[in-house]
Design brief:
By secondary structure, the protein is an alpha/beta fold. The chain folds into three domains: 126 residues, Arc Repressor Mutant, subunit A (Orthogonal Bundle), CATH 1.10.10.10; 72 residues, Tetratricopeptide repeat domain (Serine Threonine Protein Phosphatase 5, Tetratricopeptide repeat, Alpha Horseshoe); 144 residues, Rossmann fold (3-Layer(aba) Sandwich). It contains 16 helices and eleven strands. The strands form three sheets. It has a five-stranded parallel β-sheet with strand order 8-9-10-7-11, with helices on both faces. The longest helix has 27 residues. It is elongated. The N and C termini lie far apart (58 Å).
């Protein structure tokens, strides 16, 4: 038997998916207070203040005891225990949607967290404490929604996001992070002029209504959209005398991300460069190359941004804004990105573009399972060649 509690919308209790009747709004408010602090003692005074306000009526304490008794009967199997001058509801926090939401956000899974939201948090529960809590949780939901949007844009969903982001920016016209997301989506959908027009409208509105300028990150994003795109050609010279590896070369043509892994001396870099030069014409917007040995990926992001035409003083200071700018510059472009000698998946992920139009080839002595499972990379594993065919790294 599983009892689950829902407060991210109209508060409900369900036992094995069946709705449990837990009483009128005031009694439901008592339950909601205990759920917010599940497995923690909530004092009687705190319960009274949260449910009835700062000046509860004289009969409020008697009513509270009655409500607790009725809730115990309704929730049989879920204990509400009297302890240390208060009450504690003992339950698995992950059976309360608010706490499950926060856990998923903390694990970097905002999309799954957003799926738990059914409406306005604590809908129908009145009082100053619930109003403040509702505002706090609504802010958490908005932040998760923005994080989820960043993830979707990073996955290349620019065109699919335009209509949704246009609606949301109309609802929150002064939200600069949201405005930046719409600008990135429009740019990725090959609507750069619309992205700049939105920025211009926001800049004017901020000045007229708040007397403020757009944030540096938003200004930098607008500048990067205005700047003519460069087409870097960073591939090192192709290897001479390359032979063999026909099956591996053919496998490199599958999927937007490919990993070439194997022990030292198996010719991973030679294979990557040979294939890259053979297919460079398929990526007319340019090729990026980096030897990742010992490199901080944040430094590589900045170097790539510069290679793509952004002056150093136009690079935003925040790492997340730099990654967003890098992916914006790659949006709607066909580029080849070769990441050589990666130490692990974490070193590679910040360098992945947000569009499937680009091709990423990664070489590493490690298998990089995180890229395969989480990002759909196609693995090409090299075994040592006969001694006369071995190539340097």
């Amino acid at each position: 038997m599983t009892v689950e509690f829902f407060v991210l919308g109209t508060p409900e209790v369900r036992r094995d998916a069946a709705l449990v009747e837990v009483g009128h709004a005031r009694q439901l408010s008592v339950l909601a207070v205990l759920l917010v602090d599940v497995n923690q003692v909530v004092s009687v005074d705190k319960l009274l203040a949260r449910v009835w306000g700062d000046a509860p009526p004289r009969q409020a304490k008697s009513a509270l005891y009655s409500y607790i008794s009725r809730l115990r009967a309704a929730l049989h199997g879920v204990p509400i225990v009297r302890r240390s001058g208060g009450y504690v509801l003992e339950a698995d926090p992950l059976h309360v949607d608010l706490h499950r939401f926060r856990a998923l956000v903390g694990e970097g899974r905002p999309g799954e967290a957003m799926a738990l939201v059914r409406g306005e948090p604590f809908e129908g529960l009145r009082g100053a404490w619930f109003a403040g809590l509702r505002e706090t949780v609504a802010g958490e939901i908005t932040a998760a929604e923005l994080d989820h949007t960043d993830a979707r844009l990073a996955a290349g969903e620019h065109r699919a996001m335009v209509a949704e982001l246009t609606t949301r920016t109309a609802e929150r016209p002064l939200d600069e992070r949201l405005a930046g997301q719409l600008m990135r989506a429009l740019t990725g959908a090959d609507r750069r002029s619309d992205a700049l027009a939105h920025y211009s409208r926001l800049r004017d509105r901020l000045a007229d209504e708040l007397g403020l300028d757009p944030s540096p990150a938003l200004r930098d994003l607008a500048t990067s959209i205005q700047r003519p795109q460069w087409s870097p050609r960073q591939l090192p010279a192709p290897p001479q005398g390359f032979t063999g590896r026909e099956a591996e070369l053919e496998a490199l043509g599958d999927g937007p991300i490919v990993t070439i892994t194997g022990p030292a001396g198996t010719g991973k870099t030679w294979l990557a460069l040979h294939w890259a030069h053979e297919h460079a014409a398929d990526y007319p917007d340019g090729q990026l190359f980096v030897d990742l040995n010992g490199r901080d990926p944040a430094d590589v992001v900045r170097a790539f941004i510069t290679a793509l035409g952004t002056a150093p003083d136009g690079i935003p200071p925040e790492p997340h804004a730099q990654t967003a700018l890098y992916r914006t510059l790659l949006a709607n472009r066909r580029m080849l990105i070769v990441l050589d000698d990666a130490a692990d998946t974490a070193q590679v992920v910040p360098l992945l573009p947000g569009t499937a139009l680009c091709r990423v080839v990664v070489t590493s002595r490690e298998r990089l399972p995180g890229l395969v499972t989480a990002h759909g990379a196609r693995p090409v594993v090299l075994q040592p060649a006969p001694e006369h065919e071995q190539r340097p790294e």
